[in-house]
Amino acid sequence: MLTTPFDDDQLHEECGIFGVYRHADAARHVALGLHALQHRGQEAAGIVAFDGARFQAHRAMGHVAEAFESDRVMAELAGYTAIGHVRYATFGATILRNVQPLFADMSFGGFAVAHNGNLTNAMALRRRLVKAGCIFQSTSDTEVILHLVSTSQQNGVIDRFIDALKQIQGAYSLVALTDNMMIGVRDPLGVRPLVLGKFEDGTMVFASETCALDIIGADFVRDVEAGEIVIVSDEGIRSLKPFGSPKSRFCIFEHIYFARPDSIVDGRSVYDVRKHIGAELARESGVPADVIIPVPDSGVPAAIGYAAEAGVPFELGIIRNHYVGRTFIEPTQQIRNLGVKLKHNANRPQIEGKRVILVDDSIVRGTTSLKIVQMVRDAGATEVHMRIASPPTTHSCFYGVDTPERSQLLAATHDIEGMRKFIQADSLAFISMDGLYRAMGEPRRNTDAPQYCDACFTGDYPIPLTDHWGSEEDGPRLPLFSKAI
Amino acid sequence: MLTTPFDDDQLHEECGIFGVYRHADAARHVALGLHALQHRGQEAAGIVAFDGARFQAHRAMGHVAEAFESDRVMAELAGYTAIGHVRYATFGATILRNVQPLFADMSFGGFAVAHNGNLTNAMALRRRLVKAGCIFQSTSDTEVILHLVSTSQQNGVIDRFIDALKQIQGAYSLVALTDNMMIGVRDPLGVRPLVLGKFEDGTMVFASETCALDIIGADFVRDVEAGEIVIVSDEGIRSLKPFGSPKSRFCIFEHIYFARPDSIVDGRSVYDVRKHIGAELARESGVPADVIIPVPDSGVPAAIGYAAEAGVPFELGIIRNHYVGRTFIEPTQQIRNLGVKLKHNANRPQIEGKRVILVDDSIVRGTTSLKIVQMVRDAGATEVHMRIASPPTTHSCFYGVDTPERSQLLAATHDIEGMRKFIQADSLAFISMDGLYRAMGEPRRNTDAPQYCDACFTGDYPIPLTDHWGSEEDGPRLPLFSKAI
Amino acid sequence: MLTTPFDDDQLHEECGIFGVYRHADAARHVALGLHALQHRGQEAAGIVAFDGARFQAHRAMGHVAEAFESDRVMAELAGYTAIGHVRYATFGATILRNVQPLFADMSFGGFAVAHNGNLTNAMALRRRLVKAGCIFQSTSDTEVILHLVSTSQQNGVIDRFIDALKQIQGAYSLVALTDNMMIGVRDPLGVRPLVLGKFEDGTMVFASETCALDIIGADFVRDVEAGEIVIVSDEGIRSLKPFGSPKSRFCIFEHIYFARPDSIVDGRSVYDVRKHIGAELARESGVPADVIIPVPDSGVPAAIGYAAEAGVPFELGIIRNHYVGRTFIEPTQQIRNLGVKLKHNANRPQIEGKRVILVDDSIVRGTTSLKIVQMVRDAGATEVHMRIASPPTTHSCFYGVDTPERSQLLAATHDIEGMRKFIQADSLAFISMDGLYRAMGEPRRNTDAPQYCDACFTGDYPIPLTDHWGSEEDGPRLPLFSKAI
Amino acid sequence: MLTTPFDDDQLHEECGIFGVYRHADAARHVALGLHALQHRGQEAAGIVAFDGARFQAHRAMGHVAEAFESDRVMAELAGYTAIGHVRYATFGATILRNVQPLFADMSFGGFAVAHNGNLTNAMALRRRLVKAGCIFQSTSDTEVILHLVSTSQQNGVIDRFIDALKQIQGAYSLVALTDNMMIGVRDPLGVRPLVLGKFEDGTMVFASETCALDIIGADFVRDVEAGEIVIVSDEGIRSLKPFGSPKSRFCIFEHIYFARPDSIVDGRSVYDVRKHIGAELARESGVPADVIIPVPDSGVPAAIGYAAEAGVPFELGIIRNHYVGRTFIEPTQQIRNLGVKLKHNANRPQIEGKRVILVDDSIVRGTTSLKIVQMVRDAGATEVHMRIASPPTTHSCFYGVDTPERSQLLAATHDIEGMRKFIQADSLAFISMDGLYRAMGEPRRNTDAPQYCDACFTGDYPIPLTDHWGSEEDGPRLPLFSKAI
Question: Can you tell me where the transmembrane regions are (chains A, B, C, D) (predicted)?
Fold first, then answer.
């Protein structure tokens, strides 16, 4: 079997989270919300529901629609409150024990938690906890949080939870469930998204993106703020700010690629931002051309913005095959060379004899861009210009995005001209850093206090990378561990 | 479980076919070709390969990438020649016995056949054959062809095959495989598509659409002609025309909806035709608006054409969720009302406060259009105008397209104003018949001898509907039949 | 994977059949009857039911209890009449298309048939039928019968069926189902068993063995006679004898090994016959010993008979592991040498220091006997004597029993002393032919007109072996054929 | 679906354990050993292997032969040391998380443990551990041991393990695995069995019963003693006795029913003990009869012993269907009444007109005995006498045997005559307590210091039942718990 050729050359979000408090169909609504967040993780999905007496969980590999298709499964998830999770595996194979939400019986009752992001001191904490006698059942960062809560010396769930949060570092949006509360949390810099929504009847909802509110007909209330803990209970809504009021550093890549174009994240329309990036690109690095062609699907809004600004026709010059699954037949070498075509095909009549500007969201390893350029040239383009709706990706992300090691990033080892040669385009341009910030509505990047986390472009990591920076003697990230149940 | 809400309100192509003669990786190439034809049928897929001594078959429910993922399966399909089929079930549940290609040992050797289309006298022929002692193992029309070949009094495979073809009525493109030939056939009116392709090394290929040639790097040679039998063997290529030279009546709906936009069918770029339809629509029924929004994905090219002609911005105002599978959780009534949102979501910032023109390919039952209009209005559109890239669909298809009974077709029971009211749009317009033909490059529809099969718009059925018109005493379409193996 | 070691060295019955006419729970009763016949075939099972309007079938690989476990499956098999089949595959892999009962829509209505036995002219008939245009969908002999019925020039189901039976050769017990009859048939020599049973309410039942009547509480009425056709319908029971009254040649191996000990077959208690064989063995070839130990499970009744006659204690000196499935882990060579122990273990305290007589039903290849003797010797036996409850198996069966080729039969290539040396026993004796017939209640074997089919011991084949004796040019048994659906 | 009718009316052992230290094929040998112990648990199986660097685990529902059939699975279990477990679920549904061996990364390295038995203070310990912050992932008693080891204040694995063992109460045989030791333990009273075996090359083996040594060709060395810890490492074998030298109280029911007849447990041949019980029964409660019939399979050795002592013929008058799986079709009431026949059938010719003595191992609820007596009477027995190879089962077991609640035990609520009436036998007798002890080779039961644990017959529980005797406020056995992963 072969992982579809493009997967290796794309960044992957790790997770999406969702929760519903007090609704007759809590688990069904969570399943729908997760379905709308499916783009944030396709490997596995899980829901934990509470019915006033018992917690029930269902977790499965695969898509939400399959995992929660069975009436029997949904019947077992009866209950008026539920939280859920979709996941893309970061480390090694996803095993079922790692699928969230995780749950534990603690001295004060049941506690479930779902996590979007990545802890940067998880290994250090894990070593400390194991030394103290804690037994880990998964390789998931999230389990660290469970053990910190469980072993906290504080009284009460909330104080224990805050105690745990104060020990962890990293990017995290969390939704937690106890027997009388649903809790939403964003890390002190608010790197990963989390919004609060509300049904007409007052039922409260947490979601990674607003598109998950839309699918169930809930209204957007507001973002959970950076460093904020929002507690939803029968007493209403409470907000805690145990970290004070740090300045937010939202992940700018959510706007460029991860979030769905119909979502409002961090206060902005994703689609609009992408169109503005396209327009900035056209202004910054315009070149005479006959047609603007997006690399589907993520390049489409930027290409529309580019085309409108440049006054050049926008056409679907590359058609995507939407039936691409995760694997396909093991190809012979001859077939492997056709690889990219499993997913994309040139729409020759829109390309032949034309000067083409391709618009894509980013370049990771560059192997896909090379094949796309080649495919467009084979279809008869006289010139192929590549325009990228983000600055060069020069650094790995440690905050919940699955990036290759730095040495695998084309932009980490090549300058622009080197990259152009690698992908064999006639010209290559990336949006400038300030152009990107302008598209976000900022005058420019504030280098003293950047408005966003842009570490993948700058190496400016706003949260310590404790595990990554740790010494050799700290041992491997994954210690001895038993295989999947 | 629930079939995804939109399925009921869309037309479905029945099948795609593909064949490769004399290639070291015949079956792998057929799997790739079928993958490119996946849009023509997602229910099941099959391949029959011949290695010079034995025929081997693999057929499975589901997508091509799953059905042929296993190395073991592909190893068993070794052989230098192979044909394949993707299928959308027309009658009842798809059962594995119905999955094509069908195969039979006959007195002259093995014979396999894959079929895209529908026979209109299959039941009459079946009754006659059963009376003569033939035993049917499937409910598939295609098996009728097998029995006609097997029981033919002619000598030689080709004469038997022609004998069979002369008895069947209907729309059919066929690819057949014997122990020394691969044969491609189109019915006398050439209703369904079939093209001939070639590898650089001379290997010949049959495919329903050119996009399936692209994926394996084969060149387009020509269409198989209406009523033509093309025989590929080690002796080269032979063309027979047992039906003389009837005038072609290609299915115009292939251009409007079924074919992939990057295919060339019947000599024209599908994408171009759709853009021209959009432009014609803009000229015929333009209305002041702020934004042109396609109903994704099929409405996109027409919307681009409309927007360019009208000088109004094109925006992705409706975002499609590509993770919609065939089923989802059984919704409660409240959730059912959210149904359409499983697949589509309004991109509110592109809609709010604007006069919107929606462009869609067709209206079948109208229930989806109603929900789309509602969704767009809920997102704040001040006006919602629906423009349809085909004439009103007033008649059922009996030539291989899965249409509802006529009484279920909105256009069969409502005039334009009635349809507008039903879908609650501010205005509704369909392209005119002549406008459609103009977009196809014709001056107008030739009413005496129409250039295309447009029966779904006109009721002008060019091939007799023997089974459909038959008397009651002919009995039911499906006689006693045992359940799926 | 490894087929459990003993399978290769045991004879296998091909099939068991069962039918119930006019009972509210027809299919459930058939499933129970098949469960009681599971020893006759463990590879696959199937049921066809008729509800007065439609035939429904379910066929599956594996045991009856799994194949018909699902309530949904049983609900679909509603109907007042049903026939069923359990199968052990004779040729190649069992594929689902071969699983019986087979069914066909014929000009007169539906016709289903289940078959226990083997046709000896199936290939010759198949060639003739294919030449006439018949299309075969399976490699099963049984399908020949379907086509003979379907293409018969006779009128009426019964006459067509008789017409078909007159053309086939071989050993066969059949149960057939039409829309108003259930029909039971035994071949003219009555080689394979078939009995008629009755519920208190008059519902009629066909079964391969009486133990299948017991499980559903039906009473044994009588054997279907050799060459008899028994027709059960709403008009009652009719008996036809189209072959006159040939003398029966029932398979003597059914008594020795195949039939369940609690069955009455051909008028005799299987358990009693086996005990009598054991007693004959003790009289014919007694030897001083301390303990009689059966090779479980088939050797138990003969060992009890032997022990009682010899006045030597009977002990379970070999314990069988009943959890042996069809496959186990691929063993290394070291483990392979332990092979036999997956299924059997010596009960050392019953063996150590003792002179042991082992009693087994037959010797096929001899490899198992060798390992058993070795195991018993390793457990401390001072002498190991093997006594076999059948004469030497010198010939292959062509009448429905899965025997190795003749060259693989130990008795075909070794005399008794050679066999003794091969299995390394201190002595070896088989029951004499006349001793066997005495145990059956006969004075001796009537060599002019043997009372039983004993071809596997004598090579005296009472039914022509047309396919087997055919010339090379008749071609291979399995012509071109497509892989399993 | 229906659990096979007999399951409810039989006692079930919970588990079997097995371990191999330093062998090239450790995991394969463990799989074979578990296969030989399959009678001790059929619900699930697991193996943990260590290759000098990493621990690997595979656990699955179902039989050993299925769970470890895959070459891929076995390849992943490479390593020179492995322990394994077969399991019968005691509480609720078996879920995969409960399948042993359990494993945890602890501060000193990996630690795996497999457990046969039951802890009687598991809930009390669990509550204490949860209060201290431990997170449990399973409902298994065994996890308590893991947490006790993990949180122990002692240094070194052995001291931590002993610290844990000193806190637990109950019946337990354990096999544990660390990165340099394999450890076998029996509880201070040695209630559950555990033996030490050795290959010729010195490889050491732990097994629940000797039959598991036989299958891999290992020699029996000795029993692990009551309260003994046996440590196998590269330094050789070490024995610790942290509990001093308490007098053993081995479970007498292992001899009566659980252990395989070819095993030597606690120094005695199980088969011999059962024969002696049968002989004692014949002496204590003989009655004139024509035939001795065992209730298969567990009653066979006792029936042989009875028959030999009584001089009455032993016959297989009841035939068992070995193809009974865990479920079957949901029967209608009529079929339910046939229930017992799914598994057993009367061998009528051995019964009809005879005075029958049935020999069974025990009576639990009595429902099966009732049906068996009825079946034998229906087959024509003139008298039916039931003889039971154990004293009346009047008390539940809390030491690892799955018994019904006391109120469900027929002997807890009926005297002998009441039980006889219930099962409708002509006479009923159980072996006396002293008769049972005589069969074990003792002069009688030493009432001051019984030689065995016979609590199920006497209510004399040698180990405190802390959880069972605990007050209401201790809460339910299973607190809030999430559903199966």
Answer: none
